[in-house]
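quick one: adenosine-5'-diphosphate bound model?
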Amino acid sequence: AVPVALVAGLSRAAHFGVLIKGARPLETMARIRTLILDKTGTLTDGRPQIVSIDSHGGMAEDEILRLAAALDQASKHPVALAIVAAARARGLVLPVPSEVAEIPGEGVVGSVEGHKIIVGGDAFVARRVGRAEDDHAALAAGSVLVAVAVDGHMTGHLVMADPLRDGTAAMLAELRREGIERILLATGDRVDVAERVADGLGLDGIRAGLTPDQKVLLVLTERKNGPVMMVGDGVNDAPALAAADVGVAMGARGAAASAEAADVVLLVDRVDRLGPGIEIARRSRRIAV
Ligand code: ADP
Ligand code: MG
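yep, here:
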């Protein structure tokens, strides 16, 4: 039987919008040593705005955006949703893409109006068109860099801004008070972008350019030092959430796959509910034992 204090804890947490899937994750939450945070959509707001569109071969900005958005209609990645929304806001009509293949957390490949389009992270697209990664000066203004290739040529970059969620620094301080010893940022994005986002947050480390499998490896490595909590929002985070002692999904806007793989789902779109969640877990455990 589950002790009454744990049941009360689960229900108090749910009241805060923290859905904990049972007594065991609640109990484990009280013992977390290491916290691994995904970047886009977890630490950041996850609704990036376009700051600028850089054309490399003379294609009009709106045309670059139109082709990228047409293909990104096939993706539920937060960056893809933002690109589609930005194109629609400019009144662009988006054709339906064909032969679409999404590589989760990296980008999408497909065909639009007979042209082969690749949209995704700069490293991903650069690799596929045989070009070096962009040394992007304009990125100083933003925090997400999306590359667009058309018929094998790097045609443009979308520089986007994705601000940190409000209260992130305060939340991290609270988690340290609740006994978390080590806080890491894990992202599929570029290291320079990750460093800029993490600047001033006092994190214990940044792991960038990670594939979904590498996020899993990071979780498994960190587990050698004690229980690990991993927080993420994307389809690409689902395996890492499942590998963690406690996986936490950003449930309100995150991918359904991440909510399914998680032990804890934040039903409200606020990562700062983690602090109260852990506090409740620790208190329930003290009463229950
Ligand atoms: P994080 O791990 O920080 O949540 P992701 O690994 O999900 O970030 O994405 C990293 C980067 O890959 C994004 O910032 C974006 O540049 C690019 N990206 C991934 N999927 C897409 C997509 N469908 N459309 C455009 N860009 C994408
Ligand atoms: Mg993410």
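The chain has two domains: 4-45+164-288, 49-161.
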